[in-house]
Design goal:
The chain has 188 residues and is α+β, with helices and mostly antiparallel strands. Helices cover 39% and strands 20% of the residues. The strands form 2 sheets. Strands 1-2-3-6-5 form a 5-stranded mixed beta barrel. Strands 4-7 form a two-stranded antiparallel ribbon.
Length: 188
């Protein structure tokens, strides 16, 4: 009985030590919960990065086809002039400033993934948006989630579009922390 009690205490301690963190990577790119995430990606479908379109959209080869993947739960400033720039001007400044910030977000995303990289896709409730893009949480080989890296490092705002809300609270917390710390786009 005593041995069982010791094993239960050890098991409980292990479970507590593997609680996921919302702080993303530090400046060296070291994730706080990579071992948990690495085991998670083993069960996810694999894709190959073709290129980065902007801070929150990439193109991958998935099931033999090129697919646009919209990163769920985050919204980066537009990196080129389009109708969404007007909407983002309200919060980020004039169109020129929005596009400048969008270019920074795009460069950050490009620093995370390169053409030819293997990534892993986690879908939420909806697999595609009204434009036909895949909607996914995208993981690197080391287990880090790209969506989370972008927002935790200050290059995106949270964008929750129900029913895809799996990491909504984590992303909100990361966004608040990035703003408070003046990371990424929030540097003054």
């Amino acid at each position: 009985m005593k041995v069982v009690k010791h094993y239960l205490i050890l098991l409980l301690a292990l479970l507590i030590s593997f609680q996921p963190s919302c702080t993303g990577s530090n400046k060296n790119g070291n994730s706080n919960n990579s071992s948990t995430s690495e085991s998670k990606i083993l069960n996810l479908p694999e894709a190959t990065v073709d290129h980065v379109i902007d801070g929150d959209t990439i193109v991958v080869i998935f099931n033999g086809q090129k697919e646009h993947v919209r990163l769920i739960g985050i919204d980066t400033p537009e990196s080129r002039m389009n109708h969404r720039v007007e909407i983002q001007e309200r919060n980020l400044g004039d169109a020129e400033k929005v596009i400048e910030l969008g270019q920074k977000a795009k460069e950050f995303t490009k620093s995370l993934v390169k053409p030819g990289d293997k990534v892993y896709l986690e879908f939420d409730v909806q697999q595609r948006d009204r434009y036909g893009r895949l909607l996914a949480y995208v993981y690197l080989k080391d287990g880090r989630m790209i969506n989370k890296e972008i927002i935790c490092n200050g290059y995106a705002m949270p964008l929750t579009v129900p029913p895809n809300v799996k990491y909504q609270e984590e992303f909100k917390k990361c966004y608040q922390e990035a703003r408070e710390k003046g990371l990424g786009l929030w540097k003054e």
